[in-house]
Amino acid sequence: MSRFATTDLCDAHEAQLASGEVQVMQPAMLRFGARRAFHGQAVTLKLFEDNSLLAEAVRSPGEGRVLVVDAGGSTRCAVLGGNLAKAAAGSGWAGIIVNGAVRDADEIDACAVAVLALSLNPRRSVKRGVGDRDIPVSFGGVTVRPGDWIYSDRDGTLVSRAALHV
């Protein structure tokens, strides 16, 4: 993975920030996982309190991509836990961003994947197989489309239509 800093990317792409081609996610996410900085192209999921599609996705080849999960902002149950984080790391996902809750924080922290989420909740989700994949999702003040580039480090998370790194 090439090195980057979101601060430097913002400074170098001010025109794209102004036009909306590059967006900055609102700083509301908690960070988990052994990987602190990550980037890759987005794969999107939209679901609500049902992690069936997420479980399927993290077991598929990640190829350095970032899974962006709009879980409707629900914090009533977790849609990702230690087992799925371990599967994501083993499948080569660079990171997972969850607009919702996760659980098993210590287990996730031991995994070689980055996870951003709104909160923790020990309750697991249901499994009904309901949700959508590869559609635009909007949360945190940004819209993420499949194939957009995600860049995230301790300073924040960027969404870009085009690759920003060299």
Offer a few descriptive terms.
single chain; 166 residues; alpha/beta; Glucose Oxidase, domain 1; two-stranded antiparallel ribbon; 12 strands
SSE diagram, text form:
Elements: H1 6-12, H2 14-19, E1 22-24, E2 30-32, E3 38-46, H3 52-58, E4 66-70, E5 78-80, H4 82-91, E6 95-102, H5 105-109, E7 114-120, E8 132-133, E9 137-139, E10 142-144, E11 149-153, E12 156-160
Parallel strand pairs: 3-4, 4-6, 5-6, 6-7
Antiparallel strand pairs: 1-12, 2-7, 3-8, 3-11, 9-10, 11-12
Helix pairs in contact: 3-4
Describe the structure.
With 166 residues, the chain is α/β, with parallel strands linked by helices. It has a single domain (6-160), classed as Glucose Oxidase, domain 1 (3-Layer(bba) Sandwich). Helix content is 21%, strand content 34%. It contains 5 helices and 12 strands. It has helices at residues 6-12, 14-19, 52-58, 82-91, 105-109; strands at 22-24, 30-32, 38-46, 66-70, 78-80, 95-102, 114-120, 132-133, 137-139, 142-144, 149-153, 156-160. The strands form 2 sheets. Strands 1, 2, 3, 4, 5, 6, 7, 8, 11 and 12 form a 10-stranded mixed sheet that branches. A two-stranded antiparallel ribbon has the order 9-10. α3 packs parallel to α4. The longest helix has 10 residues, at 82-91. The radius of gyration is 15 Å and the shape is globular.
